[in-house]
Amino acid sequence: MPKALHLIARPEGEPKDSDFELRPVESRALNDGEARVAVRYVSVDPAMRIWMTEQKSYWPPVKLGEVMRAGGVGEVIESRNPRLPVGTWVGGMTGVAEELITDGRGLRPFDARTLPDPTWALHVFGATGFTAYFGLKEIGQAKAGETVVVSAAAGAVGSTVVQLAKAWGCRVVGIAGGPEKCAYVKDELGADAVVDYKREQIGKALHETCPEGIDVYFDNVGGEILDAVLKRLKLRARIVVCGGISQYNGSGTPFGPSNYLALISARARMEGFVVIDYLHRGEEAITAMAPLVATGKLKGKIDAMEGIDNFAACLRRLLSGRNFGKQVLRM
Amino acid sequence: MPKALHLIARPEGEPKDSDFELRPVESRALNDGEARVAVRYVSVDPAMRIWMTEQKSYWPPVKLGEVMRAGGVGEVIESRNPRLPVGTWVGGMTGVAEELITDGRGLRPFDARTLPDPTWALHVFGATGFTAYFGLKEIGQAKAGETVVVSAAAGAVGSTVVQLAKAWGCRVVGIAGGPEKCAYVKDELGADAVVDYKREQIGKALHETCPEGIDVYFDNVGGEILDAVLKRLKLRARIVVCGGISQYNGSGTPFGPSNYLALISARARMEGFVVIDYLHRGEEAITAMAPLVATGKLKGKIDAMEGIDNFAACLRRLLSGRNFGKQVLRM
User: Is B262 on the interface with A (CB under 8 A)?
Assistant: First the structure.
């Protein structure tokens, strides 16, 4: 019997297995206009850690007892909806569930044959890629010749930002943790320089890798890295506030960037954004990124775990930076 | 013999009298093209506290032994420069000095008869007013109907921002310290609501005075007020990072706004600026503000102390918020 994962407790610190409960999915007969979707993959994202709290955010918190919110892709396995014939791939907010019944609203069909793999609809050609593309373009306003620094550069969004910035003619410095990820960012993704935040003193390393300062900082982590970047901004620099993964598991007061007054002398800005505001422009991003994918300039790396009962472990893996590539859970 | 005030030590905490030394001003005969200016007033500004440190800023630090940097206004008392006849009023970076010799560069003549008082060239019709005008217009992008919150609302820049925002049709909430300043902000400047940060819990007070959230925050103080504002931003809010006076005297790590991740869900921005970038557009601001001054919608309040030997005391007064109105020192 297919199952769904329900949030039953608000995690303190790292999410625990016991914060969730597997419950059977309703498997009634379909009504006219409905389709049954077998979810194949769900996207495991840092923002999930925020959705689990009671914190006000761009979406309401997941209520206790509800199916855990997640983006996912799946196949129609039974249908009484002519627009969703059996075999159609769909993507959207499926939740962490093996199966669901839909009238089609909120799910978008896509042609999986045009993708290297269906997971790409969650990665480069999905919300992850759109986050990188619109964040770097609209908020970061990255221009050729500028120095772009990216944190969590081996992560899903970060690795896409590194490659896009390179393709747009920027000088790119990636920040990642550990020699394996750093080598990946430099050798595979093509960053001009890389900083290993686990091994190097971040301020010194930024001084060395960005001797003329930083034009754009795409921030996925917050914390001390953000603070170090603030001290090295070029005039009219832009900080793209995409996430703060270093702060998500903490239960105390998050780390505030004490160097934020540097925004004054640099005439710089920090700006937050949420990809859902750009989903209606997804085609624009896909059109821009497809040729880069075709020519090997934009690669996507998937880190998949198996099984709905591994969701909490998969999320812990992501939040502690043990993943390598876009984290997904295969259902 | 006229004197100038030299910085001889970098203050720790509050600036002390002993951080400065009065030295005689060179009073040689003028060369062709030169004029002697008797400085009448200098502007005492929060940014001075930063110029005294070794901190990188939009201007280099004042070197030890140099005359303390300051904006000022004065009268030409002797001249061998036909463009600066005796009796001309000039404004610019005079430094904290009773007298100076100039070839005219860096000083701008103005017609003191068109001003309520020559100090206005340091206040509403000078760098203070330009800071308020361009900060609110260009960085804050305040629009009619929006809610604008201003900290240090009884201060020089803050009081101008309150009145401009009201004139532009905004709803204005001023934050100030103590009943006298709060009454001034509400009754004299016309703010719709006022918060006494010394008496009220700032988060609760902002919740009550801005029930629908904040569109523009003009920040002169930083610290916990900024953090409280971040929790109450409306969608696409703008934070104008003008100053952080609450942090200037501190010797430890400044307070970082730990709620900055709220910029994400609000799709909001924090942006710094420096008025010197807008000085070339001063006429635009004067043209826009003059009718407001003429109709009594824009008032300037001056808080003057006397005597160059009182400079350090005057600066302490400003940094501790004991001033009431634009702080100047009459020479």
Answer: yes
